[in-house]
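Need residues for this backbone.
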């Protein structure tokens, strides 16, 4: 057996010039924008990406000019390979991005060259959604169907890990690390605001388990913390006019302040790497709003990146599959 592990993520534009083509790839995915007539997919994607490119590029400029997601995911892959090696598991780790380089097709090119016989698919999305894990797996299946040499590949899928105990423990530990930094560290006085990437309500109505998975993660983390803090769930990154999961994170912040909350800890529940949604939306957009609303303290739990507790949890997931 020659083992490989393929990490799935969305990808992100690394330079200002990448922003519009990245958005075009994103909105070309029928799992992101659903249209009754498929022939309209790419023309609409061109219109949306062109209209949003200037504003999105300005936001990326505020976080250094581009997304750090590729660099961080590569670092996660290296850290996971080292962790597995220490456990006596020899495996090559690959990264397959859905909307930017390195695409899944590029990862499969290398997997084929390396002669991998068994492959574990590990999405870096803890909670399943058709728009993330589902889209990545669908793309993978389409790519494999074109490659005769990989059709006999031994494949093991990790579809979700939103209740995985070591993931829950790592997230709870991160929250505990931040609680002590508040002016009033009494847990009862710190509101935990779990902020997840939103999806259209129609996805949930059609059977997408994303909302249920996210709520289960929040409940398990709260239980792990001893239910000492008031807990809230909100959603960010809405795009377009359709109805999305609510409440929006900015709306929830206003509600909390109106109810007298003084301290809030934002937790990027569906993000395991720093990128535009954490570095711009949570750290700039919502931080500015929190200051404007008069919160005494607004803090944010960092994304996992290469936190050793998180890498250990990923290794546990892999070993469990083995």
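Answer:
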């Amino acid at each position: 057996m020659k083992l490989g592990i393929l990490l799935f993520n969305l990808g992100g534009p690394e330079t200002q010039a990448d922003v519009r083509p990245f958005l075009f790839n994103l909105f070309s995915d029928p799992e992101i924008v659903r249209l009754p007539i498929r022939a309209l997919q790419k023309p609409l994607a061109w219109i949306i990406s062109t209209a949003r490119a200037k504003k999105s590029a300005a936001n990326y400029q505020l976080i250094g000019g581009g997304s750090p997601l590729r660099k961080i995911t590569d670092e996660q892959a290296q850290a996971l390979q080292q962790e597995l090696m220490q456990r006596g598991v020899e495996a090559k780790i690959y990264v397959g991005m859905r909307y930017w380089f390195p695409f899944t097709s590029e990862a499969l090119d290398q997997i084929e060259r390396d002669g991998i016989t068994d492959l574990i698919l590990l999405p870096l999305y803890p909670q399943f959604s058709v728009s993330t894990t589902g889209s990545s797996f669908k793309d993978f299946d389409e790519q494999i169907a074109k490659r005769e040499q990989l059709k006999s590949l031994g494949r093991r899928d990790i579809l979700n890990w939103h209740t995985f105990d070591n993931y829950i423990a790592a997230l709870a530990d991160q929250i505990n690390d931040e609680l002590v930094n508040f002016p009033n560290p009494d847990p009862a006085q710190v509101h935990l605001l779990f902020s997840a990437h939103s999806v259209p309500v129609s996805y949930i109505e059609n059977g997408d388990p994303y909302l249920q998975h996210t709520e289960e993660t929040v409940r398990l983390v709260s239980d792990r913390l001893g239910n000492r803090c008031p807990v809230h769930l909100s959603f960010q990154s809405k795009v377009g006019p359709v109805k999305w999961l609510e409440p929006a994170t900015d709306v929830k912040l206003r509600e909390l302040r109106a109810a007298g909350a003084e301290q809030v800890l934002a937790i990027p529940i569906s993000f395991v790497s720093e990128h535009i949604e954490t570095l711009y939306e949570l750290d700039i957009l919502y931080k500015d709003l929190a200051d404007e609303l008069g919160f005494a303290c607004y803090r944010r739990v960092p994304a996992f990146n290469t936190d050793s507790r998180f890498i250990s949890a990923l290794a546990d997931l892999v070993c469990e599959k083995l």
